Amino acid sequence: MDDCLFCKIVAGKIPCDLVGESESFLAFNDIDPQAPTHILVIPKEHVRSLADSESSEMLGGLMSFTRDIASEHGLVEGGYRTVINTNGDGGQMVFHIHVHVLGGRQMKWPPG
Ligand code: AMP
Ligand code: ZN
Questions:
Q1: Which domains does the chain have, with CATH numbers?
Q2: Are 73 and 82 in contact (CB under 8 A)?
Q3: Count of alpha carbons within 13 angstroms of residue 16, beta-carbon side
Q4: Which residue's CA is the closest to the ligand 1 atom numbered 15?
Q5: What is the pTM of this model?
Q6: Among the bound ligands, the one closest to the CA of 6
Q7: 112 within 8 A of 89, measured Cβ to Cβ
Q8: Ligand in nearest proximity to the CA of 84
Q9: 3 state DSSP class of 76
Q10: What are residue 41's DSSP bridge partners?
Q11: CB within 8 A of 5, min separation 6: which ones?
């Protein structure tokens, strides 16, 4: 999708700090990290949000890839948080579905 920031990252038109890639997914460091580790995991295919996702296969693959990325970054023993912000009240700013992977510090609950 032409005016989507993360589609531009997928297409290589905007640089990113890549930390993982598969045939269908990308993982890169968040530009404004909220924890010592803050990775975004996205499908290469444009899907606007979790609410707009229609493929269980994509969602399953996204979560499996996210699990592997967290493991590869040494987050399993200490633990980590995964977040998918959806639409306005969810705090979604970039409308290309993405999983935040946050780790390396104690997370708080409830979230802000
Ligand atoms: P959300 O609010 O869930 O839509 O999250 C969007 C995230 O994208 C924020 O955490 C931003 O810091 C991050 N972000 C925005 N632009 C970039 C970029 N060019 N590279 C990496 N992360 C980005
Ligand atoms: Zn997109």
A1: 5-103 (3.30.428.10)
A2: no
A3: 23
A4: 31
A5: 0.98
A6: 2
A7: no
A8: 1
A9: coil
A10: 27, 99
A11: 14, 94, 96
Counting ligand 1 atoms within 8 A of each CB, the residue from 8, 40, 49, 81 with the most, and so the one to mutate, is 40
Query: Which residues are part of the catalytic machinery?
Result: 98
Task: Summarize pLDDT for 34-71 with one digit per residue, the tens.
Answer: 999 999 999 999 999 999 999 999 999 999 999 999 99
- The structure tokens 């708080």 sit at 108
Cβ of residue 7 lying under 6 Å from some atom of ligand 1: no
Q: Which atom of ligand 1 is nearest to the CA of 30?
A: 22
Report CA(48)–ligand 2 centroid distance (Å). 7
**Residue among 8, 3, 4, 73 nearest 37 (CA):** 73
Give pLDDT, residue 40. Answer: 99
Other CB atoms within 10 A of residue 22 CB: 14
